Amino acid sequence: MNAQFFIIGLAALLIAVSVFFGLKVFGIYRRKTTSASWSATTGNVLSRNISSIKNSSSGGYSYRADVTYRYDAPGGPFEKKLFLGSKGFRPQAEKLLETIGETIQVRYNPERPVEHITDLEKIMPVHVFAMIGSLILAVVLLVLAFL
Question: What phi and psi, each to the nearest 5 degrees, are found at residue 44?
């Protein structure tokens, strides 16, 4: 009986992971589809950064590229740090930043200017895989728990 509760708990955790990534994916999708009618402005790039993250199991590093920008809108200015992606080699992360100029296009919701999206934001395949994979694994665990 204890194993069954453990498996159900693990399945619940995986469902939570799936919901987390699902909200990220669908949030970007929703903003991308509704932002066509939003106000457009230019955002100023404040910084481009690459940070290294040590992998505790392999001892190697991955490199995270991000950009910080500011845009003016009613109630602002607003500033945001945007994660562009994680790469296994520093030159790959540097390539992500090479395409970023001094300014970027920002579309913001005129009714709620803090809600915005840039052309840089996209649905990352790893988020889709995490959402679907964790949901499938949770279903498999729940089936196994009740066999």
Answer: -95, 125
- Distant-in-sequence, close-in-space partners of 140: CB < 8 Å, separation ≥ 6: none
For 74-123, the pLDDT digits (tens) are 888 999 888 877 666 777 778 878 888 888 888 898 888 888 888 777 77
Distance (Å, whole) CA 47 – CA 106: 16
Radius of gyration of the chain (CA): 19
Report helix, strand or coil for 89. Answer: coil
Burial of 108 (C-beta count, 10 Å sphere; 0-12/13-18/19+): buried
CA distance 71 to 107: 10
Could you give the 3-state DSSP secondary structure of residue 28?
helix
Residue 63's domain comprises 2-145
Residue 9's H or E segment, with its range, is helix 2-34
- Number of folded domains in the chain? 1
